[in-house]
């Protein structure tokens, strides 16, 4: 069959999806149209040509949107299933014989885990392993085991995440997904990990794409791609959701318990920098959602409260200073009267 009937993905227009030939499909066989194109890997090897890196970046974005947004994912995106269709038309995904379904709790848990991981909230990450369907309820509800798991997870994170700290905290940690996956799975025997089919399929898909991307660009950092998607989602998350809870957790001022303007601006700047748009665009897009407006109200209230608190502190300090100055004047007057042997009469 020709590729004339192939369609662009509604998620990313530059992704080409072959149409199924329903008359030839059965419960065991999927028949799809033929797509003309060239493989991304060089002949006889597994290295992606550097000029094809933008196409591979499209593939990473498409896979992440399936994994974290739609919940239906092409789980076998190896080099043979990705084609450059030429003519600047985009990237074709072939062979939909292996498709993974990702539950909503897992999608939101994954996004939250990435955001909390970047914020180094390891306790928060550990608490999400129930939503990720990786730890049994018995472990999650046992304070001692959960604390032990949190400490073990933090140890793993310190080993596999390379934070390059700067003054404004804008640098994301570098990570190799395959190494991080192996390190986390090393905890499985001690904490009764469950490995549902979705996890293995999705982990393999991301690890494959990461390996292809690093073959063209050794500096490729998968966490940058995931975090760019994650921060956009949490800024628009509806109140009361796991994502909304994560947003408040990573922007909360530990002293006041309110939203920290500094932390909120860091999230917005991260989203803007990674998306290549002005911060005002990120704010505008967030305000178009119910969740974004809810967060903005809480942020505004926190800002107003901090201003009022600051003003009240200044007033109180000024009042204390005035009282102190007045008391000093009175004391000087009494000392002066004492020196000349005179004391003011006290009315009774």
Description:
There is one protein chain. 55% of the residues lie in helices and 5% in strands. By secondary structure, the protein is mainly alpha-helical. It has a five-stranded mixed β-sheet, with helices on one face. It has a two-stranded antiparallel ribbon with strand order 4-7. The longest helix has 50 residues, at 290-339. It is elongated.
Summarize the structure.
A hairpin with a 6-residue loop joins strand 1 and strand 2. The termini are far apart.
Form type: elongated
User: Secondary-structure element order, as H and E?
Assistant: EEEHEEEEHHHHHHHHHHHH
Helix content: 55-70%
Order of strands across the widest beta sheet?
Answer: 1-2-6-5-3
Distance between the termini: 112 Å
What's the total count of β strands? 7
- Main beta sheet: 5 strands, mixed
- Poorly predicted spans: none
Mean pLDDT equals 83
Rg result: 29 Å
How large a portion of the residues is in β-strands, by DSSP E?
5-15%
Q: What is the count of DSSP helices, taking H or I runs of 4+ residues?
A: 13
How are the SSEs ordered, and which strands pair?
Blueprint: E1 7-8, E2 15-17, E3 38-39, H1 53-70, E4 72-74, E5 82-84, E6 91-93, E7 99-101, H2 104-118, H3 122-127, H4 137-140, H5 143-160, H6 177-185, H7 188-191, H8 197-216, H9 222-235, H10 242-251, H11 261-275, H12 279-287, H13 290-339
Parallel strand pairs: 2-6
Antiparallel strand pairs: 1-2, 3-5, 4-7, 5-6
């Amino acid at each position: 069959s020709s590729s004339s009937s192939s369609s662009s993905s509604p998620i990313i227009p530059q992704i080409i999806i072959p149409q199924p030939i329903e008359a030839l499909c059965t419960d065991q066989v999927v028949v799809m149209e033929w797509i003309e194109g060239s493989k991304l890997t060089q002949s006889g090897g597994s290295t992606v040509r550097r000029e094809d890196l933008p196409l591979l970046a499209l593939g990473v974005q498409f896979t992440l949107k399936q994994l974290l947004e739609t919940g239906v994912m092409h789980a076998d995106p190896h080099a043979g299933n990705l084609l450059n269709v030429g003519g600047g038309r985009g990237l074709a995904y072939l062979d939909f014989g292996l498709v993974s379904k990702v539950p909503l709790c897992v999608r939101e848990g994954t996004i939250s885990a990435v955001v909390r991981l970047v914020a180094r909230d390891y306790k928060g990450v550990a608490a999400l392993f129930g939503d990720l369907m990786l730890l049994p309820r018995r472990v999650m509800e046992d304070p001692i085991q959960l604390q032990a798991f949190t400490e073990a997870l933090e140890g793993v994170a310190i080993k596999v995440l390379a934070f390059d700290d700067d003054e404004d905290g804008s640098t994301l940690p570098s990570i190799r997904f395959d190494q991080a996956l192996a390190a986390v799975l090393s905890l499985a025997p001690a904490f009764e990990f469950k490995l549902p089919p979705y996890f293995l399929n999705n982990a393999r898909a991301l690890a494959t794409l990461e390996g292809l991307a690093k073959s063209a660009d050794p500096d490729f950092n998968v966490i940058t791609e995931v975090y760019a998607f994650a921060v956009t989602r949490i800024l628009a998350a509806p109140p009361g959701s796991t994502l909304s809870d994560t947003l408040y957790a990573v922007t909360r001022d530990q002293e006041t318990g309110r939203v920290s303007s500094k932390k909120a601006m860091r999230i917005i700047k991260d989203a803007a920098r990674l998306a290549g748009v002005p911060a005002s665009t990120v704010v505008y897009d967030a305000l178009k959602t119910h969740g974004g407006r809810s967060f903005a109200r809480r942020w505004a209230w926190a800002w107003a409260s901090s201003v009022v608190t600051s003003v009240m502190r200044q007033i109180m300090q000024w009042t204390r200073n005035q009282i102190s100055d007045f008391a000093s004047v009175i004391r000087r007057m009494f000392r002066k009267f004492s020196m000349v042997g005179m004391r003011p009469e006290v009315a009774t």
